[in-house]
């Protein structure tokens, strides 16, 4: 939806003169090298340009006949533009936080709204469409509707088509092709540069099929209890059912070294958790009595025990490590996990050792620590291996829903109410980000609970926030039905 030519040309030239369009070699967020770069953040230094851009975007929304109750700018560049549109036309604005707020609230959207209200998304540039999509997802998660987005510049790389597939109609003031034409016409760039950029655009299209995270589909359309019915493995079934019954998707990482403290936590936190996750080898005073007591507490409070042993050897060795030695893990842990790096044998070895018992295994498909190698093809291979052995493999340790199979359970460590970096490379996301945005099923929380002055209060809060995030995901489903 281009505006009349002279208005568009003028605006493009003003943006060029302000330094918002640059030619050279630039590395984009995706890692791809681009011969052109738009930095529309510089607009904040040019009030007249800002005003003009906001008017242009408002006019586009009017021409689209978009009906909306509020406006939300994709953070950060589009925030001032949305603000101007809101003030000038007296339309309420909403702000989407990039990070959840302080302890306890985990609020992603600021401002007043009613469930079912329609919100117009405003953005400076659309490339893959993922920024608009993410903002829209956060709005939808709290009950808003998003059907329209207005953008200043479309890089013509397939973003609008992808958004359209998700029901978001996106209109731009002008395209990158228009920018090139105007700049050549006004002798700001030469023809070869125009050709180079055009070649880049043609060679860097985002496929409209591989839209965002298709895996989000599964967890979002079924409840935990509905998914329980689809599980072959009885441990997975039990876990999904008890999550729904106890209304908690919190796994507690019991990383304390004293057995007495460990058992105390297993008792007092019991009502708030679905899983008690152990690193049994860090206990300085381990005895078989500890696990006998832990098992009794797990029955009393109805949670499962997950020994985070991360097996990573050949099948024959992990079989012994699982059932023998001091800890005899197979005797008491409902769930264990393994690195897929040795190949199928690691799972086969564990499965043999668990024969005759109700046990489940998680594969580590992604890790929370900075610089870890479990990414891309490695993650994809982990998913394939798990799906091939789904009688014993019940899911993943991952940062997102890596499998679309409804019987696969995703557990995410590195969770805190305030996201950021921890010590020794640990990285944190919020429960909202893990469950709503990344489509995970269970949050794993350690130090934010055992280091709290009120441990039970902290666990109760995580229980509430984690389950609310799941409910927000389900609300979105109902909205779509
Ligand atoms: P924290 O205190 O909430 O950072 O504890 C996280 C727990 O999850 C801790 O027991 C780790 O060993 C475990 N963990 C993790 O943090 N990141 C991973 O990728 C995997 C496990 Br796998």
From TrEMBL:
This is Uridine 5'-monophosphate synthase. Homodimer; dimerization is required for enzymatic activity. The keyword Glycosyltransferase applies. The active site is at residues 308, 310, 313. In the N-terminal section; belongs to the purine/pyrimidine phosphoribosyltransferase family. In the C-terminal section; belongs to the OMP decarboxylase family. Pathway: Pyrimidine metabolism; UMP biosynthesis via de novo pathway; UMP from orotate: step 1/2; Pyrimidine metabolism; UMP biosynthesis via de novo pathway; UMP from orotate: step 2/2. Residues 249-462 form the Orotidine 5'-phosphate decarboxylase domain. Transmembrane segments: none annotated. It comes from Stichopus japonicus (Sea cucumber). CDD domains: OMP_decarboxylase_like, PRTases_typeI.
